[in-house]
Amino acid sequence: MKKLLFLFLFFPLVTTAQESEVGNWWSFIGNKKLSSKFDWHHELQHRNYNFIGDLEQLLLRTGIGYNLSDQNNNILVGYGFIRSEPYLEGSNEKARIDEHRIYQQFIHKQAFSRFALQHRIRFEQRFIESDFRMRFRYALAASIPLNAGGSPSRFNLSTYNEIFLNTSDNAFDRNRIYAGIGYTLSAHLRSEVGIMNQSTSSTSRNQFVISTFWSF
After folding, report:
1. Which of 75, 128, 170, 216 has its CA 20 to 30 Å from the CA of residue 187?
2. Considering the entire predicted model, what is its pTM?
C-alpha cells in the first residue's frame, strides 16, 4: 500500500517533466455541523494545467445544507465563484473568465454490505460574464474500506462517475470518471489521491487529484 501511495504522489512530477497532458487538481472540502439539521459546506479547488503553477481554474464554493430526515438525505443551496484561465487558440496567452454560480443539490446515501454509495443531483444557474446558462449534474460515488475481515481500516478505495447536461440544444456538456485511495487521519480529517478523466464531445484530459476532507 505504501508503494502505491508513493506512485500516486510522484506520478504528476514524472508526467510534468515529460510534458504530458496530465493536469493536477488540489481540493479542500470542508463541512461544519451547525445543528442536528443544518450544516455548512465550503470548498476550494485549485486546478492546474501542470502539477502546480499554471492555473487552469480556481473554484470557491459554499452552501447551507439541511438534513431531511437523517444524515442520509440532505438538500443544499449554495453559491460558487469560478475563475477560468483558458489559453487562447494558437497562443501562449491566456484569457480570464469569471463565473458566478448559484446551485441547488440533493444527496442520498446508501450502504450495502461494505460498500457506501452516494447519489448527488445538482442544478446550476451559471452567470458567465454576460452569458447565462443552466446545467444538471448527476454523480454516483462508491467507497469501500481496504481491510481484511472485520478489522478497522484507515484506507479506502473511492470511485465516482459524474455526467453534466446542459439545458440548451447541446445537452451533453462533459463526463468525469475517477478512482482514488483515501486515508483517514482522524475522525474529522481525511486525505485522498486519485486520477480523474474528464471528457467532452471534443476533448479528453486526465487530471491527478489531491484532496483533503475536513468535518468539524
Report:
1. 75
2. 0.86
Query: Following DSSP, what letter does each residue of 55-78 receive, concatenated?
Result: EEEEEEEEEEEEESSSTTEEEEEE
Residue 190 contacts residue 153 (beta carbons within 8 Å):
no
Instruction: Tell me the pLDDT tens digit for each residue of 56-74.
Output: 999 999 999 999 988 899 9
The residue behind cell 504522489 is: 9
| pLDDT, tens digit, 9 for 90 and up, residues 84-130 | 999 998 889 999 999 999 999 999 999 988 889 999 999 999 999 99
Overall domain count for the chain: 1
What is the DSSP pairing of strand 204-215 with strand 23-33?
parallel
Q: What CATH number does residue 175 fall under?
A: 2.40.128
Domain that holds residue 132: 2-67+76-215
